[in-house]
TrEMBL record:
Keywords: Membrane, Transmembrane, Transmembrane helix
One annotated GO molecular function: cyclic-guanylate-specific phosphodiesterase activity
Protein name in UniProt: Bifunctional diguanylate cyclase/phosphodiesterase
Residues of the full protein shown: 225 to 504 of 505
Keyword Transmembrane: yes
Source organism phylogeny: Bacteria, Pseudomonadati, Pseudomonadota, Gammaproteobacteria, Alteromonadales
Membrane in keyword set: yes
EAL domain location: 23-278
Source organism (scientific name): Alteromonas pelagimontana
Length: 280
């Protein structure tokens, strides 16, 4: 495959949702893009206050459209989910990320974890599970960063027992589970106790209110306190200012992700960032 200009991968205009295509054209374009493997990935590293080093990185999909340029996942993930195309996109994302990490020799010594966004539909889709299981087994050598699967809270739980069984099957592969956008959805605290969840990501809408909005401050503190009691890793996302970072650190947050530390990077930039961590 031809490589694209360096900057095109990571930058696109602010990601509010616009109608790029009508629905039918979008579906046709997505099918074509899957066939042509027009999707690529970027990586946003996460900073660990306790080690003063990088913790892991989140993989984010980008659609490199031949005429429109880089298209944000906000424009197409939802439609891909509704049209049953998300499984194929996730397979491409997985394959690209593992191939790049291998090629650039990014190991667990550089990055403890590598996180993927999974639509909840994938977790229960047999054929997709089979493909991804095989990919995970191939990728999982001792040097590979630990795989974390981020599930969004809104989609998660209708039936706790069934969800538990699905997640536990995946856990046998050695992956960890994270709840994305925590605080915006429906996960009850009892589900948090019953499901095999290892990590919580505090939604960036709460972080955005720190330190001006008293309610954001208090909700964030409560989530941090609860996560510690339950012994879950907690990651604050969307950290953009040093005030937010200081507040989080003072309240026991260990891992942070956001523009203050790094924007999403292509694999070359990621490698460079891992070799030259910021001096914080
Ligand atoms: P998310 O999982 O909540 O990912 C974080 C989003 O916040 C990313 O947007 C990231 O670029 C952005 N971000 C990171 N730091 C900051 C910050 O400091 N400030 C602000 N304002 N934004 C920040 P992105 O890449 O546009 O992804 C949007 C969403 O698309 C993701 O939200 C995720 O839900 C979905 N997505 C991305 N990649 C995939 C994928 O491979 N599969 C699936 N199913 N969904 C994906
Ligand atoms: Ca995520
Ligand atoms: Ca999120």
């Amino acid at each position: 495959a031809k490589s694209h200009p360096h900057t095109a991968f990571t930058e696109y205009q602010e990601s509010y949702r616009v109608n790029l295509f009508d629905r039918l054209t979008m579906v046709e374009e997505l099918i074509r893009a899957i066939d042509k493997k027009e999707f690529s990935v970027v990586y946003q590293p996460q900073w660990d206050f306790s080690t003063n080093h990088w913790h892991g990185a989140e993989v984010l999909v980008r659609w490199y459209h031949p005429t429109l340029g880089v298209i944000s996942p906000i424009q197409f993930i939802e439609i891909a989910e509704e049209e049953g195309l998300i499984g194929q996109i996730t397979e491409i994302v997985f394959a690209k990320a593992f191939a790049e990490l291998k090629k650039f020799e990014i190991f667990r010594t550089h990055l403890s974890t590598i996180s993927f966004n999974f639509s909840y539909a994938i977790i229960g889709n047999r054929s997709c599970v089979a493909v991804l299981e095989k990919k995970i087994e191939e990728a999982m050598i001792p040097q590979t960063p630990e795989i974390v699967i981020e599930l969004t809270e809104t989609a998660m739980v209708q039936n706790v027992a069934a969800t538990k069984a699905l997640l536990e099957r995946w856990k046998t592969l050695g992956v960890k589970f994270s709840i994305d956008d925590f605080g915006t959805g429906y996960t009850s605290l009892s589900q948090l106790q019953q499901l095999p969840i290892d990590e919580i990501k505090i939604d960036r809408s709460f972080i955005a209110g720190i330190p001006i909005q008293p309610t954001s401050n208090e909700i964030t503190k409560a989530i941090l306190a609860m996560s510690q009691k339950l012994e879950k890793t907690v990651i604050a996302e969307g950290v953009e200012t040093s005030e937010q970072s200081e507040f989080l650190q003072a309240n026991g947050c260990q891992v942070v992700q956001g523009y203050l530390y790094s924007k999403p990077l292509d694999i070359r930039q990621l490698k460079a960032a891992l070799e030259n961590p910021p001096n914080l």
